Fold this protein.
Amino acid sequence: MGKIQSCIAEGSAAIALVMDERASKYWKEDAGAAIENMLLAIVALGYASVWVEGYVLDQEAYGKAVLGIPKHLRLLAVLPIGKSAVSPHQARKKTLTEIVYYENYGKREKP
Ligand SMILES: Cc1cc2nc3c(=O)[nH]c(=O)nc-3n(C[C@H](O)[C@H](O)[C@H](O)COP(=O)(O)O)c2cc1C
């Protein structure tokens, strides 16, 4: 799996997100929520991870073959888990005034 993206092999473990598209109309939203919850849990337990999906989807057939995933299921993402080698830089968070509109899209003034 490390051929998909090297960080998958660098961690001590990795979770593969396998989804059934037929299970729900909202399977992608379900997966996104599950992935976010797992990332939060991984960090809360003192480990690090990264949402690897772009590279996984580009090489989904290869990843499914490596893991023996049945044809009708999707391999959507992989979450490598390990101890962080570096202290990650926290990107600047936008302030509320930069991201909030009031009542109408584009309206910056509070009513
Ligand atoms: C849908 C999705 C797909 C992603 N795919 C990859 C990926 O294939 N490889 C990777 O290194 N990171 C991937 N990421 C993680 C992003 O590169 C980035 O680390 C993450 O969104 C946090 O970025 P931020 O701290 O700038 O908000 C993906 C993130 C999302 C939401």
Remarks:
- Strands lie at 13-19, 74-81.
